[in-house]
Amino acid sequence: MGFGGISIWQLLIVLVIVLLLFGTKRLRNLGGDLGGALKGFKKAMKDEDKEEEKEPERLEHEETDKPESKESVRDKEKQSRDK
């Protein structure tokens, strides 16, 4: 018995069928693409770790006008209704 009730002979038959359907060249390309994707993923994870270690850059704060208080907004609304 092999994996979950599948014998080695059944696995070999499936492997032969896959080879006949796709061919060795396509499977080789698929393996290369998968390896490249894993390599890129690992590199991205390492780059992300390096970015987390850096100190965050300081952001420049610009002064803006203070928001109006509720009373001043109400006064303006009353004035516009009275007109």
UniProtKB/TrEMBL annotation:
Keywords: Cell membrane, Membrane, Protein transport, Translocation, Transmembrane, Transmembrane helix, Transport
Gene Ontology CC, one term: TAT protein transport complex
GO biological process: protein transport by the Tat complex
Hydrolase is among the record's keywords: no
Protein's membrane topology: Single-pass membrane protein
Cell compartment(s), UniProt: Cell membrane
Chain ranges passing through the membrane: 6-24
Subunit structure: The Tat system comprises two distinct complexes: a TatABC complex, containing multiple copies of TatA, TatB and TatC subunits, and a separate TatA complex, containing only TatA subunits. Substrates initially bind to the TatABC complex, which probably triggers association of the separate TatA complex to form the active translocon.
Family membership: Belongs to the TatA/E family.
Protein name per Swiss-Prot or TrEMBL: Sec-independent protein translocase protein TatA
